[in-house]
Amino acid sequence: METAKQTTTVVNGVNVTQLFDTIDAIKGNPEISKFKFRATNKWQAGTHNQATVKSFYGALQEDNSREPLVYEIDEPPVLLGENKGANPVEYLLVGLSGCMTTALVAHASARGIGIKSVSSSLEGDLDVQGFLGLSETIPVAYKEIRVSFKIEADISDQEKQELVEMAQKYSPVFNSVTQPVKVKVGLDRS
Fold this sequence. Notes:
Oligomer: single chain
Strand content: 15-25%
Number of strands: 10
Distance between the termini: 63 Å
């Protein structure tokens, strides 16, 4: 008796077969889709601190399989730092760029669209008067973030624009930045 072999389809380095298997599994058990991502942070000195990412919960289980990823966080000298790492608002841009690119490539792959390259540039406008407590009317936030994608693929400009729109629609970071997200902050008294 012959056994049926499943063909694995990979587009843009994304295992599309596994992607659709995951989608089917979630349709059968939506609890699989619930994730908890975590980070810890420890102040070092001055404006320098370190954030660490290690474990997360997803697909109904804890995942502690990777080595800790440590991110150096600091400010440039003009903002009292020593440039020992990117500053937090730069990390926000990095997270946004990575998440939007991942969403774009995953959805292109699911549609069978081959991509030769994707790059993006991000720039945000921030007035530090709010952060420094010098103005109650200037937001302690980016005023605007601009994202520009360059996509090299054998598709029309309209199809490239559709991929950019999908990146916005399906990026958790884009949606977390552009829509109100409840953030609960408290003091650990242990």
